[in-house]
Amino acid sequence: MNFIMKGKILNDLDNFFKLGHMSRQSVTFFIVQIRLLLEVTNSKNKFKLVNFYCNWFLHKNLNKSKVPEIVKRIANSFDTSNSKNELIFNLNQSISSRLFIIELKELLLENKITNSNIGDDEYMFNILEIILNEIKNRPLLLENKNIVIDAFEFSVFGIMLTNHNDKIVMEILSKELKKRNKRMLFDFVIDYL
Q1: Cβ(41)–Cβ(6) under 8 Å?
Q2: For residue 135, what are the CA distances in angstroms to 97, 117, 130, 138?
Q3: What is the number of other CB atoms lying within 10 angstroms of the CB of residue 127?
């Protein structure tokens, strides 16, 4: 059964790359096929960021039950960062778009999907851009954590990507910030090369 399913998934992925154009709908189909490929090949643990982004894309929010290791990395960023800049760096490393693309290419090549578009950075960036636009405003939920940034103590219950000034940023989710009608936004580094 898995062999037949894997063959269909690989055929669908190959056809996605042969079409050459993409839309929100075609990338959604692509992500579903990638997620299925991870399951039938038992590769979710090998390609953790690909699994993470697929789950984020396919759910209204994420918590540690769906992708425990990545969410744990995010939570640890709050525990181990000694400054605002270190926190920004650690959060961006936890959900690195560059590492996601590297893992995605490895998964495709490992499964003999060798279309030239996979090596085309602009093409892969367009896939990433559609994915990021779809996962905006879908929170990654954490266990409540108390942190101090810039002499302000507050609790954090998650992060999410959102738009601010025409770019994608990371937002810290906090009840205290919400009560004060404030937002804590950080740059989300989109480094696909």
Answers
A1: yes
A2: 13, 23, 9, 6
A3: 20
By three-state DSSP, how is residue 181 classified? coil
* Contact between residue 70 and residue 90 where contact means Cβ atoms under 8 Å apart: no
Closest by CA position to 100, among listed 132, 58, 75: 132
| pTM of the predicted model as reported, rounded to 2 decimal places | 0.92
Segment 71-126, tens digit of pLDDT: 889 989 988 888 889 999 999 999 999 999 999 999 999 999 988 888 888 899 99
Three-state DSSP class for 58? Answer: helix
Q: Report pLDDT digits (tens) over 36-77.
A: 999 999 999 999 999 999 999 999 998 877 778 888 899 899
- Helices 121-135, 97-110: crossing angle, 10 deg rounding: 120
